Amino acid sequence: MEKLLISGPSRLHGEVRVSGSKNSALPILAASLLSEGRVLVRNLPHLNDITTMIDLLNCLGVELMIDEKLGIEICAANIQEYTAPYDLVKTMRASILVLGPLLAHFGQARVSFPGGCAIGSRPIDLHLRGLEALGAEISVDGGYIEAKAPNGLQGAHIFMDKVTVGGTENILMAASLAKGRSVIENAAREPEVVDLANFMVAMGAKIEGIGSDTLIVDGVEKLGDADFSVMPDRIEAGT
After folding, report:
1. How far apart are CA 122 and CA 102, in angstroms?
2. pTM over the 0.90 mark
């Protein structure tokens, strides 16, 4: 058996650079679809899932400018495509996170089931039930989730049957542009959810209870510009 022999005591000191959090960056990139303005997202980690999400945004027609440090400027105001295709999302379950923003901002979305996911396995059903509570019309056809809200979304009181990070994020993003007030109870409280909420507030969203299990969202007509740095990866920092 291999062993690590550590002689102590000794005091740790110094600094180390920690990459941006993937689990924060992915929903933040998805949330950029909500904005009518230009969004600058900094401190993105150099990971395949981040590249895939950027490719997905590009496929949707989002205007992108990437710098050498993988900071990215995003403008999604004029996209004309609302389908997230299987060939892009099959390896990245986080692709489901574009469903709420597309639906809220553009009134429609068509998102392939991520690889290995189906209703009832991971809690995608909680995403869909929450969006339906906001007034979305949702159907499943040919491996795609199709969602429509031709008259916009309406605020609602939503209780999450299970704590789900992705479900909380999707519903939070959709509720930000819904008419009226939404209350999300039993919401996930992870730091990555907090980071997403802070990014949305930077764009102009009205969210109370950030960091608690009850989020109160007063919908606004539109979200605008933001300059935001993704939080450091707590898993990387701990290892």
Report:
1. 21
2. yes
42 vs 208: CA distance, rounded Å: 24
The answer to whether residues 132 and 99 touch, using CB atoms and an 8 Å cutoff, is no
Residue 233: inside a domain: no
β-pairing verdict for 137-141 and 157-159: unpaired
Whether the Cβ atoms of residue 172 and residue 200 lie closer than 8 Å to each other: yes
CA distances from 135 to 36, 92, 179 (A): 22, 27, 10
Work out the angle between the directed axes of helices 165-175 and 124-133 (0-180°, nearest 10): 20
Residue 17 inside a domain? The answer is no
Amino acid, res. 43: N
- Residue holding tokens 């960091």? 211
Task: Give the tens place of pLDDT for each residue, 25-56.
Answer: 999 999 999 999 999 999 999 999 999 999 99
For residue 110, the enclosing domain spans 22-223
| 219: Cα within 13 Å, side-chain hemisphere | 23
Helix, strand or coil, per DSSP, at residue 154 = strand
Greater confidence (157 vs 67) lies with 157
Residues with catalytic roles: 117
Q: 172: exposed, middle or buried (C-beta count within 10 Å: 0-12, 13-18, 19+)?
A: buried
What is the tally of structural domains in the chain?
1
Q: Is residue 9, in this structure, part of any structural domain at all?
A: no
Q: Could you give the 3-state DSSP secondary structure of residue 80? A: coil
Q: Residues 218, 219, 222, 225: what is their CA dihedral angle, to the nearest 10 degrees?
A: 40
Question: What is the domain-level CATH number for residue 218?
Answer: 3.65.10.10
